[in-house]
């Protein structure tokens, strides 16, 4: 206000030139980075050996006369495969895309070799600079190829591990509905305990897989950020979904729990499928038994939020069972036919983020029920349920790890 008159704020036009002004700093940054990459910022030395970082992703045995090693070059320099040793003996080989693997490139190395079932083999890849990279086949067995029969067998394994135990857990629903208010809150708290265990277990698995990735992927920070972004993204989506509503339904909470558990079961399917694909049938069978017993408790967690609502239709229970257990089938397929540490780590990280969001939702339900009954949120019942959930998952996890 100047001299009693209002002074209007002047804005310059926002034409195409305005966009260009915003892009100029980014273009300058791009040119600088390109110069550094191409010229080494003026400190490059030609007398230094190249930095070679080759990661062995998988060793497959598609026939009795062949080994196939899948590798990724995670370093900044090309890597040239010069020789291949199998059990300390030089052997012939053929690189799918040529002997030189570019930075961030992936390829397969075919090794004509007559292997014996049940034997162990040590494979050494030797580059033209003399650097060696090792791979091993702990127990040689034919790698299942893609066929209708193998597809069905892997699906059956995932069905045993995922859909069946989750369905059996949901059968406790009629029994749980007859519990009193404190009993239902105990089950809700138990659900939180189950989910807390799944978060810790899933994150540890994701970090372990991330550590096996080429360094260029920054695996551990990647999975942590993916889990965090998934959690925040689902929170934001839930806020939009709830806009205009007082509260989201408990049935929708059960579906979110089922989806989060399903992503975790996807990781279990990956572990089982990888074991069978690598010929470790005994380990795979043991994992099936352990995960089946471990996952029956997940059905209780899925059913917990709907205990106080009118009984949903049977089709909802079918949907919850398939959503929670079905991804185990997908996991066995992925690991059995096209296993990737990167994808596995990402799937597990997304699952962790999804389960974190579910923990938030179930905790809100517990707090709401506590406020309605004027009971302390951290009552003995709730604390006991939380502890029991973690203890149950720990005890059943021992069946997998022992």
UniProtKB/TrEMBL annotation:
Please report the name of this protein according to its UniProt entry.
Answer: Metal transporter
Q: Which UniProt keywords apply?
A: Membrane, Plasmid, Transmembrane, Transmembrane helix
At the highest ranks, the source species' classification is: Bacteria, Bacillati, Actinomycetota, Rubrobacteria, Rubrobacterales
- The membrane spanning regions, by residue number, are 18-38, 151-173, 185-204, 216-237, 257-278, 284-307, 314-336, 342-360, 381-400
Q: Record's superkingdom?
A: Bacteria
């Amino acid at each position: 206000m100047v001299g009693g008159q209002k002074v209007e704020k002047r804005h310059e036009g926002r034409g195409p030139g305005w966009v260009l002004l915003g892009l100029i700093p980014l273009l300058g940054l791009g040119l600088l980075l390109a110069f550094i990459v191409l010229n080494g910022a003026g400190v490059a030395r030609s007398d230094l050996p190249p930095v070679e970082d080759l990661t062995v992703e998988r060793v497959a045995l598609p026939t009795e006369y062949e080994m196939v090693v899948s590798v990724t070059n995670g370093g900044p320099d090309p890597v040239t495969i010069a020789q291949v040793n199998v059990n300390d003996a030089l052997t012939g080989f053929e690189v799918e895309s040529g002997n030189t693997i570019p930075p961030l490139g992936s390829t397969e190395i075919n090794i004509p070799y007559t292997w014996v079932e049940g034997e162990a083999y040590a494979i050494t890849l030797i580059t033209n600079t003399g650097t060696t990279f090792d791979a091993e086949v702990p127990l040689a067995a034919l790698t299942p190829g893609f066929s209708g029969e193998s597809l069905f067998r892997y699906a059956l394994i995932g069905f045993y591990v995922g859909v069946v135990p989750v369905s059996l857990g949901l059968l406790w629903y009629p029994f749980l509905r007859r519990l009193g208010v404190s009993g239902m809150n105990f089950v809700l708290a138990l659900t939180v305990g189950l989910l807390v265990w799944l978060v810790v277990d899933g994150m540890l698995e994701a970090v372990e897989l991330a550590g096996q990735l080429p360094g260029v992927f920054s695996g551990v920070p990647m999975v942590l950020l993916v889990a965090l972004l998934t959690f925040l993204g689902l929170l934001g989506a839930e806020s939009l979904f709830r806009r205009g509503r007082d509260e989201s339904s408990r049935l929708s909470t059960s579906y979110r729990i089922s989806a989060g558990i399903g992503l975790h079961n996807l990781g279990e399917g990956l572990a089982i499928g990888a074991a069978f694909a690598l010929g470790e049938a005994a380990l795979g069978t043991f994992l099936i038994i352990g995960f089946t017993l471990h996952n029956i408790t997940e059905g209780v967690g899925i059913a917990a939020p709907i205990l106080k609502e009118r009984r949903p239709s049977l089709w909802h229970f079918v949907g919850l069972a398939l959503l929670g257990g079905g991804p185990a089938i997908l996991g066995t397929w992925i690991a059995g036919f096209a296993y990737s540490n990167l994808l596995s780590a990402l799937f597990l990280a997304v699952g962790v983020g999804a389960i974190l969001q579910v923990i938030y939702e179930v905790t809100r339900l517990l707090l709401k029920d506590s406020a309605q009954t004027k009971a302390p949120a951290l009552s003995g019942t709730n604390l006991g349920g939380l502890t029991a959930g973690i203890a149950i998952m720990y005890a059943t996890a021992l069946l997998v790890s022992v």
